[in-house]
Design a protein that fits this description.
The complex is a heterodimer of chains A (154) and B (140). With 154 residues, chain A is an all-alpha fold. In chain A, strands 1-2 form a two-stranded antiparallel ribbon. In chain A, strand 1 and strand 2 form a beta hairpin. The N and C termini of chain A lie far apart (97 Å). Chain B is built from 5 helices and 4 strands. The chains are: A mainly alpha (154), B mainly alpha (140).
Amino acid sequence: MDTGSSTAGIVVTDGPSAAIVPPAPVPAYRPALPATWWLRNRRYTLFVLRELTAVPITLWLLSLLVEIARLRGGQAGYYAYASPRYVIFSLICLAFALLHSITWLNISGLILRVPLGERDLDPRIVTAANFALWIVATIVIGALLVLFGAPAGA
Amino acid sequence: MTTATATQAPSVKLQSGATARKGKISAAHALWWGLFATGGMVAAVLLPVHILLQGILGPMGVLPVVSNRYDTAAAAVANPLVKLYLFVLISLPFFHAAHRLRFLVFELGLRGGRMLVPILCYGAAILGMLAAALVLLTVP
């Protein structure tokens, strides 16, 4: 028997070989992926949490936009957030934002290729540079946010 | 949506020495991914300090943050460079979230809506960007 035949898959329905017609194709078994597949182990859960960090980030930025919009109300209409509820909301958002920052900067070395001739720069160097950038940006922006918080003439 | 097609897919030599064939390029996907990546960088590098100061330490009164008082906040936002910075800080992560949610919704089980989900996600991000632009341009 020619097992390497290129006629594999062709079904013969009459003639001398009709007796060896294979049965109708059996549908392939496709295991249903449960909607809770990501709860199965810690790595999957962390992945979904990482992707979900986008939601608190968006919500907090919307709250910042609302606060900026209040400036249109003038001296009487503007008030900064001061309630404990907002602080707790910001704490939760900060936790997710930090998860985003750490996971994002960790893979940034792999995403941002720096070609040096035939090979690339070691991704760990790019990652370290990005973390350093994060620290510097935090210090600079933090300083600016506080320095410009002192009322003029104070 | 335009796609760039080659008569034969170009091949790429990888660092490991193997050769790979590039797939067809989708300009639309490149756009959304580019916005996703830039938004992710903005959110990763710039956002946490804003949440810490303007969301936690400022409202608690621990530090005199610029957004605590009207006069300092108005003076800061009046500066066009500050407006531009805030526009970038707020708008780009919207596109990051839109791209992420588009694919997360698929991974969590929703297999339909192949046209609707991207339209809703990127449409919402565009609306957010327009809202940010409107607010920043109308604040004195």
